[in-house]
Queue: 2 jobs
Job 1
Amino acid sequence: NWTMENFIETEIKRIRKLVGETAEVIGAVSGGVDSTVAAKLMTEAIGDRFHAIYVDNGVMRKNETVTVKKTLDEGLGINLTVVDAGDIFLSKLKGITDPEKKRKIIGNTFIDVFEDVASKIKTKDGSDIEFLLQGTLYPDVIESISFKGPSQTIKTHHNVGGLSENMKLKLIEPLRELFKDEVRHLGEILNIPEDLVWRHPFPGPGIAIRVLGEVTPEQVKIAREADYIFIEEIKKAGLYRQISQAFAALLPVKSVGVMGDQRTYEQVIALRAIETTDFMTADWFVFEAKFLKKVASRIVNEVDGVARVTYDITSKPPATVEWE
Ligand code: XMP
C-alpha cells in the first residue's frame, strides 16, 4: 500500500540504484520546501555525494541566507555551498524596469552563477558531476507542458529547466509525481522544521519583482524590511497557515505624509495577502481592521522611506498575485 514512508524508502533505493556507488549529484536549493525536501531525500540516499548550492541573488528576504545555512547545513546535514552573488545580480538589474526583463536577467544570471560554482566543485574521485537534482512537482510538470501553447506568454516564470541540457547532466526529479501537500507531509517525516515545511511560496526573481520600477539596493532594503514586519505580524496573529501567500511590494511613487510637525514626501508600500488552492485564481485575505492598523503603523514608523501603506483588495483574476 502507498504511504509516504514507503515512498521515501522506495525513492531512496531508486536514487541509489540510478546514481550508483561513486557518481555525484548537484542541485540548487532556495530555502523553499520543494528544493529542501528534494535535497534532504538525496542526502539520505547518497550523503555527501550530493552537493546543494544556494545562490544569494541579492533579492532574497530578510535573514534568508543565514536561515538557509543554519537549517540545511547545520540542522539537516545537507552538504551545502552558499554563494554570495548579490552584487552580480544587482549590477545586472541596474536601470531595468520591465518586469519580464528582470525575470530574464535573474534567470540567466542564476544559470551563469550556478554553472560557475558547479564547475568548481570537487568530487571524491576527481570525475565530473553526473546528475542534477530538481525539486519539480507534479503541477510544475503539467504547467510546463501546458505553457508550451502559442498564446501562453503571460509570464515567463523563473525556470532552470535548461540547466541540465546546458551542463550535460542527467536529471533526477524525485518529487515529480507529488502535489504540494504531499511534499509538505514528506518534509515533516524527514524532520524538516515546521517553519520551512509550511513556508509560503516565494518567486524565483524574489524582491526584484516586488520593487516596482528600478531595483536598487536601497529599494530592496525598504521592501525587505516592510515585508518582514508584515509576515512577523501575520505569524504573531496565528494567520500564517490560513494565508496562501503574503508579501509587501514597494511602489515607485512618492506620497505626502506628516511626521510630528514635518511634512514628509516618501514612498508607498502595498501589502498583498491571498488565499488560493492552485494560484491560478485567488481571493484577497480579509484581515481585521485592527490587524491592518497595527501593520501599517509599524511599517511607517520602523521603515525609513515609507510614508503610506495600502492593502491590495484585488482578486486574481483580473490581478495577478505579484505586482509585476
Ligand atoms: P502570479 O503573479 O502569476 O503568481 O499570479 C502566481 C504564483 O507564481 C509565483 N510567481 C513566480 N514564481 N518565478 C517564480 O518562481 C516568477 O517569475 C514568478 N512570478 C510569479 C507567485 O509568487 C505566485 O505564487
Job 2
Amino acid sequence: MLTVSDLDLFYGDAQALDGVTLEVAAGGTTAIVGANGAGKTSLIRSIAGILKPARGSIRFKGRDIAGLPSHVVCDLGIGQVAEGRQIFPTLSVRENLEMGAVIPRARAAAKQTFDRALDLFPRLRERLDQAAGTLSGGEQQMLAIGRCLMGKPELIMFDEPSLGLSPALVQELFRIIRRLAEDGMTIILVEQNVAASLRLADRAYVLENGRVVLSGSGEALLADPAVKQAYLGL
Ligand code: ATP
C-alpha cells in the first residue's frame, strides 16, 4: 500500500533520514523502532506531507506523494495521530470529532463514522459536550484517535500514542490498536513500548541515525539479540 524508497531528509545541514526504504502492506501493522533522535517522527512527518524530503519517493496506492501538502495526503487516505495529541482543548468532544470529518473523503459518511468511533471509545460518548481540554490524558488520546478515524483513513500512523498514559490505559490503547488492525486498518506504529509494538507488528523496521539497520517480522525482531539488548532491556 505504501512504499518508501531511498528517502533523505535534512533539517538545514543536519541529515535526519538517510536512504530510508520500507514497505507497508495493506491491512498489516508495521512497527518503527529506534532510540530517541533516530528519525522516527521525521519519517512519519515526511509521509504525512509535513516535511519535504530532499530525495527519494513515497508511493501510496501507486501514486508518488513525496512533497505533496499534508491536506492532500490526508485526503488521499493517510491519517496521523501525532505525538502530543493535538486536540482542540476549548472545543467539545463532539466538535473535535466533527472536525476530523471536514475533509471531502470523510464528509458523506460522517454520521456512521461518528457512531463507529463512539462504539470504540464509549467513554467519549459519555462526555460529548465536555470541553476536550478537561478530559484526562488517556481520554484525550482516545479523542485524538477518534478524530483521526473520523477522516476515514486507509492508513493510520501512530507516533508514540502511549506517551504519558498509565499502565492500564496503555493496555487499553494497545487493545484498541489491535482491534483496528483486526478490522483491516493498515497501521504504522511508533512506540516506546517496543515489545508490545513488535508483538502487534507483521513487519518491523529498526532505525538508527536516520537509517534502516534491521527489518523483519515482529516475531523475528523480538527474538533478535541486538534488538533484545538495545530496545527490550534483556
Ligand atoms: P524521538 O523518539 O526522540 O521523538 P525520533 O526517532 O522521532 O526521536 P526525530 O524527532 O525524527 O527522531 O529526530 C531525528 C533527528 O532530527 C534528531 O537528530 C533531531 O535532533 C533532528 N531534528 C528533529 N526535528 C528537528 C528540527 N525541527 N530542526 C532540526 N533538527 C531536528
